[in-house]
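Re: the request from the purification team.
They wanted to know what the chain is likely to look like in 3D before they choose a buffer screen. I agreed to run a prediction and write the result into the notebook, where they can find it.
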Amino acid sequence: MNGTGYKMLSEGYAEAHDKLRDFVNAWGQIEFNSRDYYVNNTWNAALAERQDIARKIKEIDEYLTTIRTSIEDQNIERTRK
């Protein structure tokens, strides 16, 4: 009530979610190979860092999914009344 409208919220979060998926696709295209880290013996650290980033991306994806579902559920409930 008196807040941001359904369309603006829905489209805003959908666009953010789409951009996140674009990022995930681009991130997945980056060559990540242990041979690039053997000189400094930093493969394990690089792998752990990349896994940490993957967890954070998953958290953002889950957040966006939750928000979008909530927006949709509220809209369905609103239109039933």
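For the purification team: The radius of gyration is 19 Å.
Please add any questions underneath this entry.
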